[in-house]
Amino acid sequence: MIDAINSSLFSPIGEDGMIGILLILNGLKVTLIVTFFAMLLGAVLGIGTTFMKMSSKWYIRFPANLYVGVIRGTPVVVQLVILYFIVLSALDVDKITAAIIAFGLNSGAYISEIIRAGIQAVDKGQTEAARSLGLSKAMTMKSIILPQAIKNILPALGNEFIVLLKETAVIGFIGGVDLMRAGEIIRSRTFEDSVPLFTCALIYLFLTYSFTFVLSKFEKRLKQSD
Fold first, then answer.
1. Domain-by-domain residue ranges, the chain?
2. Which portions of this protein are annotated as coiled-coil regions (predicted)?
3. 89 burial class (0-12, 13-18, 19+ CB within 10 angstroms)?
């Protein structure tokens, strides 16, 4: 077992002289970068899509509903491959940027549904009371509805971040070297399966549990402030 760990993680694994653990760390960096910026893009798209879907005008609702329906109805790996090899092929976009766009588009559709559900969960009586006191529709949403909705949707948003983190494992389909792809490269060069794959699994496990712990602490602080 010690020999397998040494040959997989701490020895050069190819003609380029790359050491396994450094390849995994570089892959981890790509995974975190894509996850973080895709979540930011998804949040912006999700907020915009939410208000489009809540519009009273059908021609504003229609493109938002179409976007959410298409994204939720197709696998993320298919979206990634189509975006990189077809939609962005003529623009010479690098793999990391393409992955951020693809995962951001995917996450935006789910975040929009999370936000919409959170807003609709707030008692309509509060909206009516705020409007009767003279608050505008925008001010009611900003000051009354959204603060309560954010508390309602925080667990779901945290879960979406964790799902997004794990979904980035398919970046290898477009040739990107993320955490999972780094493990596959080590496995193919050393013919050692267990060490690189379990190493990647443990890193994913550590990341998801760490984020879950931080989120739970944040939720407790929000509850204390009620």
1. 1-224
2. none
3. exposed
pLDDT digits (tens, 9 = 90+) for 109-119: 999 999 988 88
Count of other CB atoms within 10 angstroms of residue 6:
12
Segment 196-205 long-range contacts (CB within 8 Å, at least 24 positions apart): 196/8, 196/9, 196/20, 196/24, 199/8, 199/9, 199/24, 200/24, 203/24, 203/28, 203/179, 204/165, 204/166, 204/169, 204/179
pTM, 2 dp:
0.90
Q: What is the pLDDT of residue 224?
A: 66
Q: In CATH, what number does 1-224 get?
A: 1.10.3720.10
Give the C-alpha separation, 175 to 123, whole Å.
Answer: 48
Residues in Cβ contact with 57 at an 8 Å cutoff, skipping those fewer than 6 apart: none
CA angle in degrees (0–180, nearest 5) for 137-143-148: 110
Of the candidates 82, 52, 77, 81, the one whose C-alpha atom is nearest the C-alpha of residue 67 is: 52
